Amino acid sequence: MAETYVKQDSNHTIGVEFGSRVVNVGGKTVKLQIWDTAGQERFRSVTRSYYRGAAGALLVYDITSRETYNSLAAWLTDARTLASPNIVVILCGNKKDLDPEREVTFLEASRFAQENELMFLETSALTGENVEEAFLKCARTILNKIDSGELDPERMGSGIQYGDASLRQLRQPRSAQAVAPQPCGC
To answer: What is the torsion angle, in degrees rounded to the nearest 10, for the CA atoms of residue 24, residue 26, residue 29 and residue 35?
Structure first.
């Protein structure tokens, strides 16, 4: 799914692939550094090392594969343990275009998301449906957590770097943003 979002084409991920994309979120320019890790169990030991410092994750399963859905709890535990307990996680049921072959119901996945305090949506990497929305929802939620003070970009390992001064203003109290200091004139 990440490859579709970054490159507009799609293949199975082997190990880890990297990409980036610049998006506008609420008037802020945000560069998403995207690490697409393979979901197969045989790559788990390799991909676990890439969680460190991640601010957000899309936890993707295949709606036509019960096996991928059954692995979600382990992948979620890895993300929360190895990245951060405050990591923003979006649960994505991929291959929405193959609905007649569905093995995991929308309701079942919705319950898993609710029980684990995840946002949830279904996507199709093939058609692009909801793919951009998943990434933007993750970015918006991260920015909201910075704004509320729940995520501190100044903390080492937060997975966030400032690229411009406008993002730094998110961490200042609203009153400090509105009032600029005046020169003394002494």
So the answer is: -70
Spell out the domain ranges in the chain: 2-178
Please state whether beta strands 88-94 and 56-62 pair in parallel, antiparallel, or not at all (unpaired): parallel
pLDDT of residue 161: 57
159 is written with which tokens? 């997975």
pTM of the model: 0.74
Q: Write the burial class of residue 142 (CB in 10 Å: 0-12 exposed, 13-18 middle, 19+ buried).
A: buried
Q: What number of other Cβ atoms are within 10 A of residue 185's Cβ? A: 4
Bigger pLDDT: 172 vs 133: 133
Enter the DSSP assignment of 183.
P
Residue 107 to residues 68, 110, 129, 146, Cα–Cα distance (Å):
16, 5, 19, 31
* pLDDT, tens only, 101-126: 999 999 999 999 999 999 999 999 99
Are residues 93 and 152 in contact, defined by beta-carbon separation less than 8 angstroms? no
Helix (H/G/I), strand (E/B), else coil: 47: helix
> Do the beta carbons of residue 55 and residue 131 sit within 8 Å?
no
2-178, CATH topology level:
Rossmann fold (3.40.50)
Would you state the pLDDT for residue 171? 47
